[in-house]
Structures are given as structure tokens and as C-alpha cells.
Specification:
alpha+beta
């Protein structure tokens, strides 16, 4: 796990006790971060991060991240329902640049 510092506001956040999943629009798609909070939110530990070029992949990762953190399918379903109701920004990712 890696500690992270505050940055821009996420487009979507799911939280349950000390666990979180966040979604950010980025230049090449959607960034999903997931992890845990400690010491009443004073420390944030990142368990994982992935960038997806399309929203469908990010949506699936959100469900998978909630399952990884909680082991409870009902909470993954809840996260997807909340995501479907979220007012996400209109986001059109650029194509992935060629490798160097």
C-alpha cells in the first residue's frame, strides 16, 4: 500500500467505514483509485489504481474494487447503483498516445 496526498475532487466516491473507491476523468479515460483510510481519515492508503479508456471498464473496476475491499456483493451492487445516479461530467477521452 502507498500513502496518497489530496488532489482534485473525484467525479464519484464510494465510501464504507474506512474503505473508499474514487473515479476521476483523466486525459486518456477514467482513473479508478481504491484503498483505505486510517486515523479518522488523516492517512489514506492506496490499494490500487487503474486507468480505463472507456466508462464500461471503469464501472467494472469499481465493482471489483468494492468486492476486493469488502467481500460483500451487496456493497458492490450498491456502489454501481450510486454510480448510475451520479452526475458525472461529460468526458470524451483522447486516444492513447503511441509508445515511445
Amino acid at each position: 500500500m502507498m500513502a496518497i496526498s489530496p488532489g482534485p475532487e473525484p467525479a464519484f466516491v464510494w465510501k464504507s467505514y474506512s474503505r473508499f473507491v474514487e473515479l476521476y476523468p483523466v486525459r486518456t479515460g477514467w482513473l479508478v483509485l481504491w484503498g483505505r483510510y486510517e486515523e479518522l481519515g488523516a492517512k489514506t492508503w492506496l490499494n490500487g489504481s487503474r486507468i480505463y479508456p472507456d466508462f464500461a471498464g471503469a464501472r467494472r473496476r469499481i465493482a471489483d474494487a468494492v468486492m476486493e475491499l469488502t467481500r460483500r456483493p451487496a456493497l458492490a451492487d450498491e456502489a454501481l447503483i450510486l454510480l448510475s445516479r451520479a452526475a458525472l461530467p461529460d468526458h470524451h477521452p483522447e486516444t492513447i498516445p503511441p509508445a515511445l
